[in-house]
Design brief:
about 350 residues, mainly alpha, MetI-like fold, two-stranded antiparallel ribbon, 17 helices
C-alpha cells in the first residue's frame, strides 16, 4: 500500500538458532586469524623440535632419525659389595654425564655463579631504584637512569674488549693507575690479575654482570614505586619518619609483590648461566672456574657431536628439569609463607 512502510522481520525457528560460541567466532574471527602465524611459529620452532629430547634416552647416532635410534643402555647402580640396587632404563647418557669430571666441574661452577649472581645481582637494582626515587632533581635523575640503562645494549663481546683494556695486568687502565699510586707511595708495583687469576676472575665476571643488568632491571622497580600511594608518604612525614624509614616501611612493603615475583623467576633460572658472558670473558688460565653447564653442552653437543650429542642432550634436559623443580619449590615456599606466588 502507498504511503506506508513495511518492515519484514524474518523469524528463526528454534532449531535454526546459532550457538553462542559460533556467533562469537563469527564476530571476532579476524583476531583469531591473526594468531595463526604466531601459533604456527611456536609449533614449528618450539614444540616440534622437542621430539629430539628423546635423544637423551637413546644411543648417539647422527644418521638415523631420532625415533629410529635404539634406546640407550640402562643405568645400573650397585652397592659397595657389588650387588645391584636398581636399574633405570635408557639412562646411560645421564650416568655417563654425571660420572664425567668436566660435567662435575661445570655443575659446581654453575651453582657458584648462580648463587653469586643472585646474592649480588638481585638486590642491586632494588637499591638503585630506591636511590633514584629519592632524587629531587628530575633532570639529574633522568640522566642517571639513561647512563645506567646503556650497558644493557652492549654485547658481551664489546664488554669483554672493554674489560681487557680496563683490567689487563699489563696494559689495563686500572692496573696502570694502581701502579702509579704504588710507585708514588714508594711501594713495589704489583698489578692485580683481574682476568688471569681464578678468584679475581670470578669477582670481575660477577661485577660485569651486575653492571650490565642493573639499570635495565631497575625499570620494573621504578614502575612499581610510581604506583605507591602518596598519602602513605605524607602520613610518614607527619610521624617524623626519615627518608630511610620511609624507604624501609613504605616503599619496600608496597613493592614487595613485584620483588617476590622477580625473585621466583630469578630462582627458576639459577642453572641457566649466561652463555655469552662466559664465552666472551673466559681464557685458558681460568678454565677451572669458567666452565659452566651451557659451555659444557656447547662443547659436547656442537663441537663433538659424533661422540657427545646424546650426552649433551641429557645434560640440557637435566639442567632445565632442575630449573623447573627449583621454580616450583620457590613458588610453593612463597605461598606457604603467606606471599603471593606466580600462580
Amino acid at each position: 500500500m502507498e504511503g506506508r512502510d513495511f518492515v519484514v522481520v524474518k523469524m528463526k525457528s528454534g532449531g535454526g538458532r546459532t550457538h553462542p560460541a559460533l556467533r562469537y567466532l563469527q564476530r571476532y574471527w579476524g583476531l583469531y586469524a591473526m594468531l595463526l602465524l604466531p601459533i604456527a611459529f611456536f609449533v614449528v620452532f618450539r614444540y616440534w623440535p622437542m621430539i629430539n629430547l628423546l635423544l637423551a634416552f637413546k644411543e648417539n647416532n647422527l644418521i638415523l632419525p631420532v625415533l629410529e635410534i635404539p634406546w640407550a643402555q640402562p643405568w645400573r647402580m650397585y652397592f659397595a659389595d657389588g650387588s645391584r640396587v636398581i636399574s633405570l632404563p635408557a639412562m646411560a647418557n645421564f650416568e655417563r654425564a654425571i660420572n664425567h669430571p668436566p660435567f662435575q666441574t661445570a655443575f659446581r661452577n654453575t651453582i657458584m655463579f648462580s648463587i653469586l649472581d643472585l646474592a649480588v645481582g638481585f638486590p642491586a637494582p632494588i637499591i638503585l631504584a630506591l636511590l633514584l626515587n629519592e632524587l629531587k632533581f628530575k633532570k639529574f635523575k633522568r640522566i642517571t637512569q639513561t647512563i645506567s640503562y646503556m650497558p644493557h645494549f652492549l654485547s658481551w663481546i664489546i664488554i669483554s674488549g672493554m674489560a681487557l683494556r680496563l683490567f689487563s695486568p699489563t696494559v689495563g687502565t686500572l692496573n696502570g693507575l694502581l701502579e702509579s699510586v704504588q710507585l708514588f707511595l714508594g711501594m713495589e708495583a704489583n698489578p692485580i690479575p683481574f682476568l688471569n687469576s681464578a678468584p679475581y676472575w670470578v669477582g670481575t665476571v660477577v661485577f660485569l654482570g651486575v653492571w650490565r643488568s642493573i639499570g635495565w632491571n631497575t625499570i620494573i622497580y621504578l614502575a612499581a614505586i610510581t604506583g605507591v600511594n602518596p598519602e602513605l608518604y605524607e602520613a610518614a612525614d607527619m610521624d617524623g619518619a626519615s627518608r630511610i624509614r620511609k624507604m624501609w616501611h613504605v616503599t619496600l612493603p608496597c613493592i614487595r609483590p613485584v620483588i617476590i615475583v622477580l625473585f621466583i623467576l630469578a630462582i627458576g633460572g639459577m642453572m641457566g648461566a649466561d652463555f655469552d658472558r662466559f664465552v666472551a670473558l673466559r681464557n685458558p688460565l681460568v678454565h677451572s672456574v669458567s666452565d659452566v653447564l651451557p659451555l659444557y653442552i656447547w662443547e659436547w653437543g656442537i663441537r663433538q657431536p659424533l661422540t657427545g650429542q646424546a650426552m649433551a642432550t641429557a645434560v640440557g634436559l637435566l639442567q632445565n628439569s632442575i630449573n623447573l623443580v627449583i621454580l616450583l619449590a620457590a613458588n610453593y615456599l612463597v605461598k606457604f609463607l603467606g606471599g603471593q606466588g606466580l600462580w
